[in-house]
């Protein structure tokens, strides 16, 4: 049977002593030399098992490194996509600002139309006192139709402006959520790196 010291040494070899790949390679070389110089079959088998365990640790460490590398590549691709999306949102915001500016101009025009309508109403009251002026009444009717058309234009402009305001508000909310997600991802990455560093430090002790 194995002594307690041999059991402890074998468990450390299998579980890893936290000294890194260089340490494992040194153990592998020492085990190989002891295996070559083993005097008994039992000792040779023990050294053979140690070499297999050390090789497994090296393969596991290499696999872990490759997984971390692949994960970092995927994160980089994800961040690049997010940055592109942010650029698109900036273009959308710029276009929204232009539309809002255009709507403001249309509102000013609608206000002028409203002022004209008030003048038309005042004129209509004056004309009503002179029903014999048939030509003036015809002109008033034409102006009334034009005023009605302009009133529809004003309502359409106000509806468009309200829609643009809602769209702009939704866009700003989306960008805020996107920025918050990026900050949370960055904090999570820092926490994971800190935890890995602490685990490595504890393993070396």
Automatic annotation (TrEMBL):
Its main location: nucleus. Pfam families: THOC7 (PF05615). It comes from Erithacus rubecula. GO terms for biological process: mRNA export from nucleus; mRNA processing. Belongs to the THOC7 family. One of its GO terms (cellular component) is THO complex part of transcription export complex. This is THOC7 protein. It is found in: Nucleus. The keyword Coiled coil applies. It comes from the Eukaryota. The keyword Nucleus applies. Signal peptide: none annotated. InterPro entries: THOC7/Mft1. Keywords: Coiled coil, Nucleus. Residues 184-205 are annotated as: Disordered. Component of the THO subcomplex of the TREX complex which is thought to couple mRNA transcription, processing and nuclear export, and which specifically associates with spliced mRNA and not with unspliced pre-mRNA. Required for efficient export of polyadenylated RNA. Plays a key structural role in the oligomerization of the THO-DDX39B complex. The gene is Thoc7.
